[in-house]
Amino acid sequence: xxxxxxxxxxxxxxxxxxxxTFNAEDKDGLAALSLQVERxxxxxxxxxxxxPVNRCCLLMGGFAARYKEAASGARQIVSFHLRxxxxxxEHLLLDFADHSVQVMSEATLAWIxxxxxxxxxxxxxxxxxxxxxxxxxxxxxxxxWVLNVGRRNARTRIAHMLCEFVARCEAAGLGTAQGFExxxxxxxxxxxxxxTTVHVNRTLRALDKDHALSRSGNQFRIHDWGRLCSIGxxxxxxxxEAA
Amino acid sequence: xxxxxxxxxxxxxxxxxxxxTFNAEDKDGLAALSLQVERxxxxxxxxxxxxPVNRCCLLMGGFAARYKEAASGARQIVSFHLRxxxxxxEHLLLDFADHSVQVMSEATLAWIxxxxxxxxxxxxxxxxxxxxxxxxxxxxxxxxWVLNVGRRNARTRIAHMLCEFVARCEAAGLGTAQGFExxxxxxxxxxxxxxTTVHVNRTLRALDKDHALSRSGNQFRIHDWGRLCSIGxxxxxxxxEAA
DNA sequence: CGACAACTTGACGGGCGTCAACCGGAGTGG
DNA sequence: CCACTCCGGTTGACGCCCGTCAAGTTGTCG
Lengths: 243, 243
Known about the structure:
The structure is a homodimer of 243-residue chains. Chain A is an alpha+beta fold.
């Protein structure tokens, strides 16, 4: 249990350091956070639209999707998340959830009281800036997704989504373009790109046929990264990854 | 000149207070910000994708649109902004712009050095929280737009965009649903909803014909707000307006 | 009155949704 | 060890929503 908490804090610090530089006191502050580790099954709702939010969830392992639903019942995924992501910074200073987050695989979560994070953000400005930067980068990704679903065709849209996912996995130190596991179903790809499963399937097979990628089951491989980026109109600048 | 600066600061404080409560010292801190007022013509680029960003722009009058462009040249507007909005909080802690902002009408801007705002955010936590909340709410709007362009049909999409625009105008104290001026062209509505002008035109006329709204030139009137909300699948919860 | 931007309208076509099957693998239980 | 179920992937036929193209019309500003 203590081991779990220690590794959760390590993960949190490592990941936050991608968004800022910390001195020893900053790290001490982070290490003093109280948190509660939990293992949850696939499909677990981390937060649901309309819920009051008073804690913040660190994804310690597995994948998650942020989504909203239309009155028609259609679901739209607005971002994916991986190991190390803080899933609830979006609601850090808001009282009620305006969207939902669900894990896409069996996952390990660590809950942190929101009030402690907020307090720390002003006690240790470097930590606050890293958290805020994280929010700003999330927002940048949302904007790119508006463009993606609003102005690109099916082929480009899917290629773009895959490029982003791979780029973020690599930045987080999880796998590379040379063979990786896509932890999502075609239904989820459809929900992320604003398409139907049928058309996602057709488009993936077309990309495969054109040697832009190859698939077998969940295993994907990208032979020519530059080509996929070009098909997907993908420029990683909007991810604001540190140089 | 001094008068302009004073009114800019008043506007900034009034608008920020929608996102938090300030005491006298908070307001003093804000009032001490240095700023530079400028009048710009329609179409002026407040910031352009790729630019370094080291100042923050307050929109003192007029309307603005935040947008990105695809390789195909298609433009996607990702949000609209009105008098009182801080246009560059999205880049507050980022070095380079990942998108562009353009004014849609003749407009008055006030520039604030980013560094001063950042310093103030930690000196006066109430100010920092209000600024951060503003960012989070912007992000919530982006998410809603992903849903809007991803999962709604033309009629619902346009109705939703109009509802949001009117709701935000009312919250900012600019006009009401009973007759207001839409400061954008059908081309801009198309760019915001991921459609073509032709189809925007058809859809607007259909909404007009069905008495969901009435138009003459830029003048819009909404007779039955509830009905338009229902057509547009609009629930203002995601705007997180203070009760 | 000419120039230009914005809006309007009709004809046509295609990208993608819809509907409806079928297939294949993984889990489950008898 | 084999049926059964369920979920996810695959495929084809068909059609509609919305994009494309192209031609007006209107309003405004010089």
